[in-house]
C-alpha cells in the first residue's frame, strides 16, 4: 500500500508547479508506516510543511484523497505547518502531538514523500518531559469540545493510550496499547479503546466521556506530582 500511495502522490505533485514551489516537505506517518493500519478504523496521516503559501492545501488534499481512496482509511488527516515554526513546535504554530509528546514514534515511523526530511530541524523532546503538558491540554480539549461527541471520543481514546504508555506500553502500536490496558484492568479505558478498534463503534455519551477524561487525567497529574515530591525528598 505504502509504495503505491507514495508513487501516486509524487507523480501528481510533480504535475503541479505551484505545489512543487511552495511545498517544503510532505510526510506520511502513523499507522500506515508503523504497520498497524486497520481498514475501516485507521486514518491515513500526512504532514505538510509549507514555505509560505497555505492556499496550496486544497490542491494537495485533493491529490491525497485521490491517491488513498482505495486504502480503506476512515479519512485523510492532513496536518500542516509553516517551515518557520518547526524549530519550536510547542510555542509556534500548532503543537501537534506527533511532533511533541509522541515525537519518538514520528521520528521512527515516517516516510518523506516529497521534499526534505525535517528531523534535523525539530527540537528533540522526551515523552516523560511532556506528559504533564499533554494531560493538561487534554483536560482543556474536553471543555472546548462540549457537545462534540466525535472529538470527545478521540480525546478519551488518547487518554486511554496515555494510560497504557505510562503503564509499560513500549510503542503506539494498537496491539501494544491493548495488551497493557488489559493488564491494568481499567475497564472504562479498555471499553473506549476496544470500541475504537471495532470499526470506531463508539456509543458512549458525553457525561461518561468527560468524566473518564477528567478522572484519568487528574489521576495522572497526581501521580506525576507524587513522583516529583519523591524526587525532591531524595535530593
TrEMBL record:
<dbReference type="GO" id="GO:0016779">
    <property type="term" value="F:nucleotidyltransferase activity"/>
</dbReference>
<dbReference type="InterPro" id="IPR043519">
    <property type="entry name" value="NT_sf"/>
</dbReference>
<protein>
    <submittedName>
        <fullName>Nucleotidyltransferase domain-containing protein</fullName>
    </submittedName>
</protein>
<feature type="domain" description="Polymerase nucleotidyl transferase">
    <location>
        <begin position="23"/>
        <end position="86"/>
    </location>
</feature>
<dbReference type="InterPro" id="IPR002934">
    <property type="entry name" value="Polymerase_NTP_transf_dom"/>
</dbReference>
<dbReference type="Pfam" id="PF01909">
    <property type="entry name" value="NTP_transf_2"/>
</dbReference>
